[in-house]
Amino acid sequence: MNLLLVLIGGFLGGAVRSGFTHLLPSPYCTFVSNILGSLIFGLAVGFSQLANAPFAYSLFALGVAGGLSTWSTMANELGEMLKQRHWWPLCKYLFWTVGIGVVLAWRGAMWADIIYRGI
């Protein structure tokens, strides 16, 4: 059952990611996908632990967030910036993507607690 949930979530996350590629140019598309994936991951982890719902982790954290985020594309884009010696854009892109991603995953878990328990 977990595999099916991961597959369904991955399909949904991949579909959203595909939609972003039509709306935003690279690397903005990758940036938005990764930080949104981090937020979804944090929320899913928080809810799955609080509600004792492992299906939420499989469906949303592994499936949706995994299908939406694309760290391999970010690595490819960073590699291209490195080859072209675009040092400042590379540093900004890496710093903001990882920094905001970590903060949103952490805040997502905190927000899940607030939402689950009520304000």
Automatic annotation (TrEMBL):
It catalyses: fluoride(in) = fluoride(out). The chain crosses the membrane at residues 28-48, 55-73, 93-116. Na(+) is not transported, but it plays an essential structural role and its presence is essential for fluoride channel function. The keyword Protein transport does not apply. It is found in: Cell membrane. Keywords: Cell membrane, Ion channel, Ion transport, Membrane, Metal-binding, Sodium, Transmembrane, Transmembrane helix, Transport. It holds the Pfam family CRCB. It is a multi-pass membrane protein. Its main location: membrane. Na(+) binds at residues 66, 69. Fluoride-specific ion channel. Important for reducing fluoride concentration in the cell, thus reducing its toxicity. Belongs to the fluoride channel Fluc/FEX (TC 1.A.43) family. This is Fluoride-specific ion channel FluC. It comes from Corynebacterium macginleyi. The gene is fluC.
